[in-house]
Amino acid sequence: MKQRVLINGASGGVGTFAVQIAKSFGAEVTGVCSTKKMEMVRSIGADHVINYTREDFTQNGQQYDLILAANGDRSISDYQRALSPKEKSSLRWNLTTNPDKGPRMEIKNVRRVH
User: Which domains does the chain have, with CATH numbers?
Assistant: First the structure.
């Protein structure tokens, strides 16, 4: 079964990287963005796109195995409502630049959210 991943802020700089990385690992990806960015988020690989001006992903009954908050506009309790009960995990990403290798995104840590 595919891991269900939600990217809040999927149309921004970090969010667009995250959508593509999650898809490359075989996840079922849901992106959250504005109306005008929905088609772009679909085009980079999101399986589902939520327009935050019309739908609240924390209140729609869907649950995800992992949520990346690329824009940080929600409280931890909001995100917990949308996380699968068995997977209360959070992920912090770090975008770094190495003079020899150029920019890269790496997972810095995975921790449990209580």
Answer: 4-112 (3.40.50.720)
